[in-house]
Amino acid sequence: MEQDKPKVDLGRLVLSDVVDLQVVAVWGTSGDLGKTFEICKVFDVPDVKSKFGCRAWVRLMHQFDSNEFLQSLVRQFCMNFSQDKEVSLAQEGKTVGTNVLLKMEKMGKRELVHEYDAQVSSNRYLIVVDGISKIDEWHCIKSYFPDKKNGSRIVVTTQQVDIASLCPEQPYQVSELRHLSSDQVLYLFHNKVEKAEMGYGMPISKSAPVTTTDPSSSAVTSSEIQEEGSDNLMLLMVEISFTPHQQLQGRFIAARQSSQMVVGRSTEKQKVIDLVGRPTDSHHAKVISVWGMGGIGKTTLLRSVYRSQQLSGWKRAWATVLRPFNRDTLLRNLALQLIEEGPTGAGEKKNIATMRSLELASELSILFGKQNCLIVLDDLSSIDEWNSMKDILAKSRRIIATAREKFVAKH
């Protein structure tokens, strides 16, 4: 199955055969959760230790301070080299930590800078910069690391997707690293590399949408223009991804159409509104399926569409698909929202709260037959969830569904 294909391995990116300095940014949809663990699994393995003469991990706890930053790096570089002499130090009654401390105390600022320049100029280095919160911090930090074409690597973590997308060189790729839970996903932002460059033959992940920022690669091939639909439902697919300027771009692939519309952030809301309002020959629902990785802005975009005054003529209902999934709970939620906006009284609304499944389906069918209804289903995670309710919602005229997996969105 598509979701079982291998994920990108951070270790393979770090140990790849690419000689240029490479930057890999780790970003998650739930803040720092899981990032430290995934990087530690790479940072401390023997192959990485043997390949990189200089290794350091710096956590940015407050406003960036260049002196503290350099001191932390040099201290860890000295630790790397002192550990090779651990046996001889022990014989002298010394420890690695105290030996490094004494060496650092003897360094003035000039000696510190000289030691740092000597280390990064003559050794392959692996640096982890944890917690970048401002892009100007990153520009300052990157200036400290020369590209000696020796396979050095920098791994950065951030809670801001815009910063993660600015760290690698262009063009970059976005790949799923690990799916922690239904709403917690880790992603890698890394330089675009070929399979042959991955050192261990590790393919780039195809289990999650992979986007690039190379303008020349933005064209969609004919195989990607698909005509989707059935007797009851028309499908319009919208992929939310990154543009070269870290804006969102909507890739609209419309059923029974052969053209592609790529729009920027300033117009994507209007494009979705236009798609909702566009007349169709069918009396059945047109489905607008919005897919893309978690945290990239699908829900934010659709909330702005949902609240638009341009759709005031539509009866609207929004439901987030909760876990564990319960079809009747979701349908009851939709019915209560739609009837609340209609002419029915409070008594009938209370009856809906206690209706059984067949009665609930019948009530929705009657409602959909009377008025144009727009239904938003946020965060569908499986085909079974969609199949369980698509026949009931088929007369609602417009359905917008968000999903993180393309195979769910296509279905």
Automatic annotation (TrEMBL):
Annotated Pfam families: NB-ARC (PF00931)
Example GO molecular function: ADP binding
Matches recorded under Gene3D superfamilies: P-loop containing nucleotide triphosphate hydrolases
Top-level taxon: Eukaryota
Domain NB-ARC span(s) in chain numbering: 17-197, 281-410
Name of the protein in its database record: NB-ARC domain-containing protein
Organism: Eragrostis curvula
Lineage: Eukaryota, Viridiplantae, Streptophyta, Embryophyta, Tracheophyta
